[in-house]
């Protein structure tokens, strides 16, 4: 069986600091976990999360700063709102809401981050691959 | 651009018949709202200056496909079909272009629906007040209404009310329709944004789900879905044998003056002709006759109505920009100028786009506030 594709969308500040520190200390991470680093989780909108699923992700996890910790202001709140709304679309499509989660981290919580990633991957393995995939090639964007 | 298909299109869509009179450009809402876009020049460039690829490509994606140019053209140039086929061709060779509104979220879920093993939860909105059958010959096509209702919750536009009220009207006519739990999007927006591969996949999946349910007739309320199901699906699926009925036609047939009693509605209304319903499907009288059945209702046409109706500003959720907004503001101001307090339309897209402008905080003070309702909702609320 093809390994599941897990996508993490990671805020550049606290969660990425954790991810970086975890890497520096050589903690092991799930091999099928892919990370996209953004300046703030507030950068992400509903379309980008949906597109992750369209392009074949089996699970998407948003790694955010805590609400009071955001460097820009409302980032995590935008994240909560987007997750809430995309989950309703996923529900209509018959995609279980466990496949899209958000977790918040302080800058020092590398163990928590790594544990979260392992737990999320295990959870996805329990659910199995996403059935709502068309298997055809994705939208071609040529310049 | 040297594709022989383009030469074929020029002949088929009568581009050589162009007199260069410029009526198309002079009536184009996109042009009138200040965009550098000219259907006449596009036709000219495609015929004799095909090396100007950048211009042709930009123009092809710029069009609203509202069909006003085709309506005004004295030589019968089929501009809509030309744009549709050019987009399909360019998408194949140069990639999909055109700015997707809402960053392509809508096209994204439409493409996700091409997954063969999808198990949707699209019928959560059913309530005991409306009667549906689990099997039978007649089905009602809900379309994207449940999805739009969730996605556009932020601007508070209730597209599900259209589906609910359509079924209520069908119940009133003693029809208990089947609602298919796994029908897909009709693919209209993918077709008009050039994604033919996924469009055809949706058509085939829909046909399979109609067949699996043993349905012989599909009733559709959305003009876009109707156009796709009745005109494009038979083209793609050989031996397409399902009757597709537009709900408006059915209502018009069944609700003759005197046969149905409507409760009076003391309001002044005006009607927005959706481009797909009017210019593409030629249904102008139907909605007006149906509105005329409601006693005490006053009806006033807008400055641009019927064949000359103005577009709601956007089609297929691509290229929504300041120019679209301007068209929408103009349309809403025309509606207000009639003195009506209710704008009736017959397409969920018109409702979404015009509501979006009404709710736009930057449009504050523009005097465009107005209630917008779908024709089926107005009718369903007035039946005895």
Order of helices and strands of chain A: EHEHEHEH
What structural class do helix, strand and pairing data of chain B support? alpha/beta
Intertermini distance of chain B: 59 Å
Biggest chain pair contact, residues each?
A: A-B, 27 and 32 residues
Write a concise keyword list for the protein shown above.
heterodimer; A: 143 residues; alpha/beta; Rossmann fold; four-stranded parallel beta sheet; 39% helix; 17% strand; globular; B: 384 residues; Fumarate Reductase Iron-sulfur Protein, Chain B, domain 2; Glutathione S-transferase Yfyf (Class Pi), Chain A, domain 2; 19 helices
Structure commentary:
The complex is a heterodimer of chains A (143) and B (384). By secondary structure, chain A is an alpha/beta fold. Chain A has a single domain (6-127), classed as Rossmann fold. Helices cover 39% and strands 17% of the residues of chain A. Chain A has helices at 14-24, 46-54, 75-92, 110-127, and strands at residues 6-11, 33-38, 59-65, 100-105. Chain A has a four-stranded parallel beta sheet with strand order 2-1-3-4, sandwiched between helices. In chain A, helix 1 (14-24) packs across helix 4 (110-127). The radius of gyration of chain A is 15 Å and the shape is globular. Chain A starts with 5 loop residues before the first strand and ends in a 16-residue tail after the last helix. In chain A, 42% of the residues are buried. The mean pLDDT of chain A is 91. Chain B has 19 helices and eight strands. In chain B, helix 1 (4-12) runs antiparallel to helix 7 (79-94). The termini of chain B are far apart. Chain B folds into three domains: 4-94, Fumarate Reductase Iron-sulfur Protein, Chain B, domain 2 (Orthogonal Bundle); 101-253, Glutathione S-transferase Yfyf (Class Pi), Chain A, domain 2 (Up-down Bundle); 256-382, Rossmann fold (3-Layer(aba) Sandwich), CATH 3.40.50. In chain B, 47% of the residues lie in helices and 8% in strands. The model of chain B has no long low-confidence stretch (mean pLDDT 94). The relative contact order of chain B is 0.12. Chain B is α/β, with parallel strands linked by helices and 384 residues long. The interface between A and B is medium-sized, with 27 and 32 residues.
